[in-house]
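User: Mind token order:
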Amino acid sequence: MQDKTEDTAFLLRIPQRKPYGNMTVNTDKTIAILKENRGSLIDTCPEADRPKAAELVDTLEAQLDKLIISIETRDPDRVGFRVAD
């Protein structure tokens, strides 16, 4: 997941035509990995921390959804903000 997000951040640095299609693919893959592995990500946390871990996973998923919307607007400043967020 981190690799795909870092790839999107790298693609933003291209000065000419931004490869928004690649950014969308990377972010979609990250969302798919997150949804596919949600349970195992939370299960690796100590029992007492699992509610907080579930909350963090939900927050991450919401942020990635916002990133997809920003990519679709094709505004590099919005995308950069969402990647950093």
Summary: Helices lie at 2-11, 20-36, 38-43, 50-73, 76-84.
